[in-house]
């Protein structure tokens, strides 16, 4: 949609004076030294202002990290970026995670507990209870994050080639002994109940602008088996799902349905679409489904879902990720190369931001449904490309849709902090040009989080070159911050 005038109304979020003094300084610079403390309002600014929003940060992205987090990140990055440190650390972690004795259990031995909690756990996880999680969320919002994605750490991961899994319910799926009750059957399953309690509590810990992440296989074998067989959830799970969604919505939060492995994904898509049909009404997008760009089939699946949304009049929430299960999925389903996945990710993102998906959109035969885009990625190029596209569209007076970006806690801080800088530097720019940065947090007891942590550690292993770059940048920031004391 072309703007026919040089001035257009924009929404300006209140400038926050709390949090990082440096971030505040960036905002002061942008408002000619006058900190604006008004609440959200609509003002008119010249379009030319939007043309000068590309950042020229005076300080590096990691300068936004509080010193404690900076030092902990440096330690974790030092280990992750050096295979001779990472490999033995992973072996030790694998060994300890299976121990139950008082001497060797991470949870029972107070020295191991304290060591693990203060390093790996605090780096990657939000907390073991509401108080710890609340403090983590507050710290992130004070830094300038728009919100958080919170997830409960229990999970099951199946290896397609070996049919082996870890976490809740894996053994029963493997054995094929999990019973799949019909939806009408009244059953009581302890794993579903544990999931309901955990996720309900999680929904109670978040608020406006936050997201609740739902991982269905975390509800155990009965649910995972129902997904695998593409059968309806048991009644108990349907009730639990409705309860946690209503809770999140009552907290003014939204819901992200995680994508998992292919043997359960078709059914996850079906449940996610049902939730969208129910909750994404009247133009609101409360529920998002996840689309994995590494799958060759994803552009078609997304097209089908978008068309259904347009035909049936509900809004579609699109969480776009590359995909986490490359090591356990059938290889032929995945793009042949990393470049193929990168291209697919970036082209889906730009098609959506340009408001044209195949034959849907402006000047196309079919209408585009209402949609919202959430980009879950650590890839700086993808993030900057999308942000640049937004900026260009604003510059040209074209319709700019909101886009949110998320990175996992403890990972890709350079990307997250770059987004925070861009946000600080584009306060006052036309609507939605300021990127909204989110951190994705897992919470739960140390025991609950161990398999999650193992996956994070292994992911770092797979991304050694990026971890190395992150380590170098962190080390430079430590040096910059402490040189004055030498
Ligand atoms: C907020 C958030 C939410 C997430 N939610 C989910 C989720 O619900 N489900 C899920 O599956 N994942 C999820 N992920 C993980 C995500 O899918 C990626 O595994 C991870 O973010 C790494 O990809 P990247 O986009 O950050 O970029 P990069 O690190 O640049 O890309 C790595 C990814 O590229 C792909 N890739 C690597 N090598 C090849 C190759 N040879 N051929 C083809 N493709 C290749 C893989 O997908 C790999 O994970 C989430 C990530 C984030 C940050």
TrEMBL record:
<dbReference type="GO" id="GO:0005739">
    <property type="term" value="C:mitochondrion"/>
</dbReference>
<protein>
    <recommendedName>
        <fullName>Proline dehydrogenase</fullName>
        <ecNumber>1.5.5.2</ecNumber>
    </recommendedName>
</protein>
<comment type="similarity">
    <text>Belongs to the proline oxidase family.</text>
</comment>
<keyword id="KW-0274">FAD</keyword>
<dbReference type="InterPro" id="IPR029041">
    <property type="entry name" value="FAD-linked_oxidoreductase-like"/>
</dbReference>
<dbReference type="GO" id="GO:0010133">
    <property type="term" value="P:L-proline catabolic process to L-glutamate"/>
</dbReference>
<dbReference type="Pfam" id="PF01619">
    <property type="entry name" value="Pro_dh"/>
</dbReference>
<keyword id="KW-0560">Oxidoreductase</keyword>
<dbReference type="InterPro" id="IPR015659">
    <property type="entry name" value="Proline_oxidase"/>
</dbReference>
<keyword id="KW-0285">Flavoprotein</keyword>
<dbReference type="GO" id="GO:0004657">
    <property type="term" value="F:proline dehydrogenase activity"/>
</dbReference>
<comment type="function">
    <text>Converts proline to delta-1-pyrroline-5-carboxylate.</text>
</comment>
<dbReference type="GO" id="GO:0071949">
    <property type="term" value="F:FAD binding"/>
</dbReference>
<feature type="domain" description="Proline dehydrogenase">
    <location>
        <begin position="136"/>
        <end position="469"/>
    </location>
</feature>
<dbReference type="InterPro" id="IPR002872">
    <property type="entry name" value="Proline_DH_dom"/>
</dbReference>
<keyword id="KW-0642">Proline metabolism</keyword>
